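Re: How this chain folds, sequence and tokenised backbone to follow

Filed under: protein folding, tokenised backbone structure, sequence and structure records.

Contents: The amino acid chain and a row of whole-number tokens, matched residue for residue.

Body of memo: The sequence and its backbone structure tokens, given next.
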Amino acid sequence: MDLELDHIFILTDKPKEAGDLLVSMGLDESFSRDHKGQGTSNRRFAFSNGMLEILYVRDSEESNNGPAKNLRFPQRIQTENASPFGIVLTRTNDAKMGMPFNGWTYQPDYFEPPNAFHVGDNSEILEEPLCIYVPFVGPVSRTEEIGTFKSISNVQVSVPLGKMSDTLFTLQTADRLDIKLGNEHMVMLTLDNGRSGLSKDLRPVLPLVINW
């Protein structure tokens, strides 16, 4: 199946510090949103062809007991070596296809049925990123605008495991996305094809390095 990156989220317990750090770099912050029934809220940084989302748990009880309980957001925050990442994908062609990997249906309260996410069955592996496919969104025309902090060229996600699941392995076929086995949970985000030759390491606030 032809897949492409829609956006990536980073789960954090320091949303103000994390978001403010991105703003201080010069990234444009978009609107924020509370996810009803999911117990989370976000800070969004939009680009011409995707988005970086800073996600945080707003209400642990809602997150643990609502329709999103199997995403296990509070556990991911609290568990050492759990992946803080979620990778959200759409398709690049309009052919009728099945789901790109095995998984389960998550019907958020903030979407009208039957619009629902398909979540990869690796969601039980806390050390791996959540893998989410959006079947109700068709191919999107994504353009790479020229400028500074305008477009996502590539996202590399490192996972500190000896072997990745079949679900995560499938994601390696997606456009603008690389998955690698490494020593730590890390995202390397390349913007604007790295034209300026500049880079910023946002650790320890976020497990994120931005090249632009």
